[in-house]
Amino acid sequence: MLVAYVLGGYLFYAAPYLLWAVVAGLASFSNAVWHAGFIASSIALAAIAMLWLSPGDPSGLPIQWMLYWPLAIVLQVLAAAFTAVYKRAHAPSSSVNTDAAQ
């Protein structure tokens, strides 16, 4: 029973990280985008964990944990998109006039 709880808990909390690793590996994202997805998963986990400190649900059920996976996925997509756009906007342009430097 202990193994089921430990393994089940591990898979529950690790699922957004594992999903991001598979998606980012298949899409071959840059390192910055790769890390942005993992950071987004950590932010989602921390945000949901902070809700545990708030007053509890009268039913005693941890309803806030139902938000963990959707929040992690939304944050991963947003973080990856913003990071990719930022990297593209701040990348050196290849259309710079090199004749002026000569």
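(ticket continues) Second input and output from the same batch:
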Amino acid sequence: MRRSRICIIGLEDYGLLQGESTTRYVGGETVQHVLLARAWRDLGVDLSIIVYDHGQPRVSEIDGIRLIAAYPPDAGVPALRFVHPRITGMLAAMREADADIYYQSLASVYTGVTAWFCRRYGKHFVFRIASDAYCIPGKQLIRFWRDRKIYEYGLKRADLIVAQTQYQQRLLRTHYGLESQIANLVVEPPRRRTERVERDIDVLWVSNFRPVKRPELVVELARRLPDLRFCVVGGGPERDQQQMLRAAAELSNLHYAGPVAYDAVGEYFDRAKLFVNTSSLEGFPNTFVQAWIRGLPVVTFFDPDGLVAKRGLGVAVSSFEQMVDEVAALTRDADRRTAIGNVAAAFATENFSMRAVAGHYLNLFATQFAEASPVQPQMV
């Protein structure tokens, strides 16, 4: 009996997989794909990932993970490339993968394409909800009406939907009448013992510069708390980066590190005393578990399923004034930070380790797909 085969649709994953040290934005889903792929590989899964064609061989292998190039990211004639080479290239790559299960996790046209392929060829389609917005019609960050409808076609035809939180489950049920299962994020353990690192950053902020992330609030936080050392890590549009550079030049207690490669961002978490999140909307931030695994309390407006408050993993605030007060109080109280940090580190280790989460997915797949009748190819 051959090993189970899983294929991840991860067009942006090639750079991180090959160890490329880049300061280009690396999305949270790219990180999740790579960590899950490595964990599944270690559990004996035959693993492939569909990536962009950057000039590498069409089929290659890195650390026991097969990579299949779909198409170059900028290839094709505008208005025509939607079909070729994008959809044609994706379908060809999926046929090459010949997997049992196809896993996709970004709301896009490829949600629909993957669903169609799986129904046509008798495969299983697993879609993971990466953001609360994926569960609300019209809120997805999808530009064209056509593409939103293709996404919804795929969402409704997934064999298994994996949510990050109970809140996402409720949103899916309310807006689409769909059920889902919960699986946690995976987190990479710190690469060095954090107790040996000097904590010379009082407050850390890590994200990409998008309106929903509200980076302007961390600047105002630094302005209101001039005795604390703030560090901002992130990239985005040049205009936004220049604006952050100007703020850092104006405020002596604010350091802007700029875009930082994923492999290096852990060093900033290692050096921090406290992590802040200023987003108005999230799914379940990778940065939370990166902070918790290192024993950092989180101060945040966004609290997935109320975990921060219920589990004592930091402080969930409801106003900017409350955030100012809580950040000031926590940075002054080392004993309280340590107590919260110990709880957070234990929670992250127990619930977000790579092997445990990857195993939970495999159990979900076995339960979900064993109960179903054998999948037969069908026209859709």
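Agent notes: Residues 20 and 50 are 17 Å apart (CA to CA). The domain at 194-351 is CATH 3.40.50.2000 (Rossmann fold). Closing as not reproducible unless the customer responds.
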